[in-house]
Amino acid sequence: MEFEWFRSAGVAIHSDRGGSLLCDPWMNDGALLGSWFHWPPLAGDESDRLLSHAWDAVYITHLHGDHYDRPFMSKLAKAHPNTKVVIASFAHPWLRNSLENIGFSGRILETQPSSMTEVAPGISMTAIAADHCNPRLCGANVPCVSPLAWSRAIDSLGVIEVDGVRVLNANDATTVVHSMPLYASLPPIDIMLTAYAGASPYPQAFTNLSDEERTAAARTKADAFLGRVANVSRIVKPRMLFPFAGQHMLGGSLTALNEFRGMYPLLESARLLREKQDASVFTLQPFSRVDPTAGLLSDDSYREPTQEVRADYLEAISSVQFPYQKRSIERVAESDHVARLFSAAEGLAWRYRELGWSMQKSLVVGSELGSVTLNVDGSDTEVREGVLPRFEYTSVSTDPRLLDSIIRRKPGYSGFTDAHMNVADGGNHLQWFREGAYDPQLTSLLFFL
Fold first, then answer.
1. pLDDT tens column, 379-438
2. Which of 9, 66, 194, 448 pairs with 263 at a CA distance of 20 to 30 A?
């Protein structure tokens, strides 16, 4: 059994029988609406190198662009007509539909949590939908079966058996709080693959924080994330821990935010994880191929690029334009824009009433072309044009061209696209201002805008 790591969550598993499973290949810069760039930087031949291999199967954990690289997967579908794709059985068909549209129709395996499926010679696995839900809403832990279909998970984790070794690809699901009962129910795990840093816009995109406050909050955030990873490791009890997903750079007009993102470099994360839990921690160089169980890995297999390389890279990607920035702002009519935004906010008010929440908060959403305010107070909701909060409030603003794409939907449309608040949030395209304590219920409403 051998591992091969490329970048981020992109990793391959090879069996002694010649089987191969590729996980989450992200090969194109500009994920999450154009802002995410690889670190270490791509040399330029990585996509061709991966496409040259006839993979037996590809496991896509979820539909975010740094895990599901649609342009790369489209090329792979054409280059290798026998390659299968493995996904979890999600509540929504968004990922399956997209994979079918790019050429994988008839070769998608939706696995079930209760059984292992052979996906390649010597490799069997199951993918399990992670529980993003509030258990008070869904009433179940393994997996999430919320009666409110729109609140179900979009992430997954994979349990993989290869040559007698059991691997858990936990990727971004590692720190999903409501997945903890799921981890406790897993079979014994030998190697756990995990993210070690998150995509949250806090604190770097919060305009109410000074640079000093953002610096302090970034360190607190990085420590908390590694603490949650260590907690999952203590529950799962793997023999080995492989932190592989987290490093990226923000480019374009967001490049300056990199200083405050709240994530440690990979080697520092690995060092801290060794102190926080009992599993042996290892790292790899991009495109290195090793047997992690052979005992030959050093603690510092990964080599961090120099500060000079980092500075030059940030300078190079700072001039990139995001796709929505290339569109003419004159196409967004101010009156229509605010009217659509008002209608979208009324939809959030409906969600709030449906859930029966009782918080007393205000949410302001807008752009330079105008804003709307949602005031909620128990069963009472109010949508007003302008910035008119009645209570402690959270404000979210972004480019009007992006916001227009997010709120503009065809009649009857239901689905997930790149032009979605969830993607804009993870890509750090939103500017935040918060008065009072963080309220996850309030901000979760944004994802249904």
1. 789 999 999 999 999 999 999 999 999 998 766 666 677 888 989 999 999 999 999 888
2. 448
Overall average pLDDT of the 290-317 stretch: 88
Indicate the domain borders of the chain.
Answer: 2-317, 324-448
List all residues 6 or more positions away from 398 whose beta carbon is below 8 Å from its beta carbon. 367, 424, 429, 430, 431
The CATH classification number of 2-317 equals 3.60.15.10
pLDDT tens by residue, 40-75: 999 999 999 999 999 999 999 999 999 999 999 999
Are the beta carbons of 67 and 60 closer than 8 angstroms?
Answer: yes
CA 207 to chain centre: 23
pTM above 0.90, yes or no: yes
The confidence score (pLDDT) of residue 353 equals 87
Across the chain, what does the average pLDDT equal?
Answer: 90
Fold of 324-448: Nonspecific Lipid-transfer Protein; Chain A (3.30.1050)
